[in-house]
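User: I'm preparing a small set of examples for a lab meeting where we compare how different chains pack in three dimensions. I only have the primary sequence for this one, and I'd like the structure in token form so I can line it up with the others. Please keep the answer compact; I'll paste it straight into my notes.
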Amino acid sequence: MSETPPTRDPNETIGNIRKFLVAAESLPSPKGTALRFVELARDPDASIDEMVQVIRSDPALAGFVLRAANAARFGGGKPILDLNRALVRLGVNAVRSHALAVSLIREGTRVRCERFDYNGFWTASLLGASLMEALAQRTGGFPSADAFVLGLLGRVGKLAFATAAPTEYAQVLERQAAGGVPLETLEQRAFGFDHHELSSVLLADWGIPTALADVVYWQCDPEGGGFAPDSRPYRMAGALQLASTLADSCLAPDAASVDAATVYLRAAVLELSAEEVTAITESSLADLRDWLRLVGLPAPATPPRPL
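Assistant: Understood. Below is the structure token output for the 307-residue chain.
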């Protein structure tokens, strides 16, 4: 399993992140339809009809929302083709996250970090979202819609580093490629915080509930978050670490890149057998093809494989 970063004061870490965000010349941020939806989601007087009107104005977002609303976790019902029903079924928080993701995916041309694989990042994020959804459905204990959000945006701090500090982050990624030191440790050395912690602050700023942002903050070290054993946040943080590890492993160019120790540990905590992990991975990889097609991303050059 990856080396666990040393314990640091979260308040000091968040303060460092705030300074970084203020000093950044460019950051990933919602634009257009996503920005309008985020603003509506914060307005207690906004109506469902107003939100649906914004979604309908963006065909890609509308397709994303309908695809999510008809996902396997809602199996048994009739397919939904109406955006009003889709929004009610998913919830405003989930749709806000979908809008953010669609908006950020479109901003790929703005990323100038040489070592950052933009398409690979979003491929892993979409696979992580499908894996989290499947884990929620299989294990119970936390909502599938929240799980999908965590998998989709739980590592957006990587994108923020690549956008805000492209030269410095390219050096971090180069050191990671040399092997031997976990990415989180290299990020902490370079910036004073890692991409999990940066992701948490960004999501909170975008209106994602604090409880989910806390899970993102501690995903690399679920035991360090002070969560009660077998509580919802603890299970979600562990599931997120498992989903991220599985996504990276499935998309890795060779089997040697698989972090088997983390997979086995988190699967055991969630009481999942090896056969169940394989089944979850296979179903999520099948879903990945549909998500990539929907958002217009190319299939990976190296076909992903289940563990």
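A couple of notes for your slides: The chain has two domains: 10-27+114-295, 29-106. The chain has a mean pLDDT of 88.

User: Perfect, thanks.
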